[in-house]
Amino acid sequence: MLPKKSNLVSIIIPVYNRQELISNAIMSVHEQTYRPIECVIVDDGSTDDSVVIIQELQIKLDSDNFSINLFLQDNAGAPSARNKGIKNAKGEFIQFLDSDDLLYPEKLQIQVSFLKEHIECDGVYGDWHHGTVDNYDLIKGEKWDDMLSQFYGRRVIHTLSFLFRRSMILKIGLWDISLKRNQEIDYFLRGVLAGGNFGYLPRVTGLWREHQGERIVSSSGALSALAFYDKWIEEFNRLGIFSANLKKTTAHFLFWHAMDLNNNQSNDAMHYLHKAYKLYKDFPEWNTPKIKVLRLVIGPKRSINYWYKRAKSSKNQKCRTL
Length: 322
What we know:
With 322 residues, the chain is α/β, with parallel strands linked by helices. The protein is 44% helix and 20% strand. α5 runs antiparallel to α7 and α6 crosses α7. Pfam families: Glycos_transf_2 (PF00535).
């Protein structure tokens, strides 16, 4: 990271082909009641007019206490773009913002004030809206005593809601560019394991926006998500903290994503279902009278394979009770 400037908030925005939405994201930053701010925007090889739009706003909005710093790179994914942003950020506080989301005007003012008052906190998060500008749901951030379990999947916090101290970012390090899904969860978990103390302020911070370009769940996406859980199974075991609660959470996600895989990925699916069963054996689907008998006769592995093939052959592709 570049030398720190006191009180400055660096807002890191990765961009890829967001010509329809990037100006809204930048303007939501410019409309913050807080100053000083720098937008560290990293274009990840856009092929549309995103860069042109950013450059126009750069000329229009740059001032003594608000700047847009644009960096270009070949397409390498959002984590790589965020890492480039981290390396070029000068702020005492760091905010990550996706190029299709919006911050509400008082977000930074409220959270910077909180961190200055609560010097024991390494970061702070709040609530957020999810939906469109005109139609959205309120999502509560909450704070649990067990933040590892909270961030791991029981109560995931959206990226836009967080504001970090620079010192915390230095402890966490860079984003994991090998992950294609759940990079944010990975980053926040690493923050907890790095000793981060994160405060919760129940104020609505911004809009996690749904739009026509929203990503859809695919079989490749499911495999990418499963790779994330592979990483954290290994990490939890390495650290000796793989509790029964974490195992149960992991097993449910392995089950869910395995069932999203296509029929031609059945070997992968059954591999992860077996993994899920080893972590948590009390799935209702695998404890019906028929499956219990099969488990005694042919063993857990073959009984799960049988259940999987029957479930995937059902017309609506949903797991059915046998």
